[in-house]
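stage 2 :: seqdesign
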């Protein structure tokens, strides 16, 4: 249907679409910061300035930690794509950051799958979607494994309303239903976008086992890095507890926030609520927790999204 549209008209709409994505992403970030019902952004900024919590050296160190965090994510993507095509680290950077910017407006960042696929030929896009799914699944696996361990320690050392049975029954039910559904889907002959599910299963099996190992290791290192960053920011607010104690709560927080179903609009709210509840058990006030969650979001989502918007605007054309 687009074949009859003049080339210049198509170029105009393509540029307009890119501008719309960037403008919408920046508006979404602004809306998140200024419409947070739990943390007034002006009060947050005033508190940071008034108490001089963050020196120039501290800010640089935090940005370095975020840079390493995203370097690992970019390296993970490069490793996955290398299973069928070699791309440079710069190309992996461009694809990862531009997809982050565009996916801010989609539920559970599902837009990331589509944007990364646009950088590849149409014959390769199904592989790209599958590889992106593997990367996200292994990152989630790390979150669940470490989160379960952390939550066990947390429940053993703190009196809370949370009960082992309720949490693990709920978690087991969710993953049980997922595995049962996946089993029956893979056994069926149904197709998704013209691809049979058994073919998808065979594709996953054909990938070298060392790729899974490398991606899992990168996901683990990335998790360790942003968990340390979360703990370090809290210490800047004067919170004093051991790294081990902090790690127990942080891993529990990421685990619970990941398994609680949510719409993307309320994702930050849910993470903040879980964090406030868990850290209140070790005497940390709500303002400190909300400030830490906000700074983590600014460093690891907003900052790379700004750079990603540059790549979105530079994106020239969809590969046929």
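stage 2 :: out
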């Amino acid at each position: 249907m687009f074949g009859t549209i003049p080339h210049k008209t198509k170029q105009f709409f393509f540029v307009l679409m890119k501008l719309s994505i960037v403008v919408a992403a920046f508006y979404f970030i602004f809306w998140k910061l200024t419409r947070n019902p739990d943390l007034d952004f002006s009060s947050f900024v005033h508190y940071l300035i008034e108490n001089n919590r963050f020196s120039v050296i501290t800010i640089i160190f935090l940005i370095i930690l975020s840079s390493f965090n995203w370097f690992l994510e970019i390296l993970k993507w490069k490793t996955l794509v290398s299973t069928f095509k070699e791309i440079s680290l710069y190309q992996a950077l461009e694809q990862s950051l531009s997809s982050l910017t565009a996916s801010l407006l989609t539920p559970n960042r599902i837009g990331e799958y589509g944007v990364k696929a646009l950088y590849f030929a149409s014959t390769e896009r199904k592989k790209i979607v599958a590889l992106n799914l593997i990367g996200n699944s292994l990152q989630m696996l790390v979150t669940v494994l470490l989160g379960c361990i952390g939550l066990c320690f947390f429940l053993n050392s703190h009196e809370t309303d949370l009960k082992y049975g309720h949490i693990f029954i709920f978690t087991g039910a969710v993953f049980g239903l997922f595995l049962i559904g996946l089993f029956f889907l893979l056994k069926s002959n149904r197709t998704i976008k013209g691809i049979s599910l058994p073919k998808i299963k065979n594709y996953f099996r054909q990938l070298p086992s060392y790729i899974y190992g490398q991606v899992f290791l990168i996901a683990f290192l990335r998790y360790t890095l942003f968990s340390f960053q979360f703990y370090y920011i809290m210490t800047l607010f004067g919170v004093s507890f051991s790294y081990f104690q902090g790690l127990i709560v942080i891993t529990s927080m990421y685990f619970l926030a990941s398994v609680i179903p949510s719409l993307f609009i309320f994702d930050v709210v849910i993470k903040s609520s879980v964090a406030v509840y868990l850290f209140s058990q070790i005497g940390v006030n709500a303002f400190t927790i909300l400030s830490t969650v906000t700074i983590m979001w600014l460093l690891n989502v907003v900052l790379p999204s700004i750079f990603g918007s540059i790549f979105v605007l530079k994106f020239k054309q969809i590969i046929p």
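stage 3 :: structure notes
- The two ends are 15 Å apart (CA to CA).
- The first strand starts at residue 191 and ends at 192.
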